[in-house]
């Protein structure tokens, strides 16, 4: 890293392992890996996230932009609106969004989160 940029070189970052909270899990046994490549002052995060198949409830208190790198996921809001996400597609989820995230095929995304 130089002072002016950071590359998304995942070989230099140890992934964090995780899973949905048990009270949010709806189906499957999804497992997460997150490579946080940037944590800036003011609550800004950027990196890469990956999940194996499963479905869980999501509630966003933060703002997030992401782009799907690989896989297939379905995001559904509490009103029933469905968004199918495949490689190359991007989305912004705003604070207050709630619904479900279903990983149909192991999905990897890059993200920028602002708290």
TrEMBL record:
SUPFAM superfamilies: RmlC-like cupins. Pfam families: Cupin_3 (PF05899). It comes from the Bacteria. CDD domains: cupin_TM1112-like. InterPro entries: RmlC-like_jellyroll (IPR014710), RmlC_Cupin_sf (IPR011051), UGlyAH_Cupin_dom (IPR008579). Residues 39-111 form the (S)-ureidoglycine aminohydrolase cupin domain. This is Cupin domain-containing protein. It comes from Neorhizobium turbinariae.
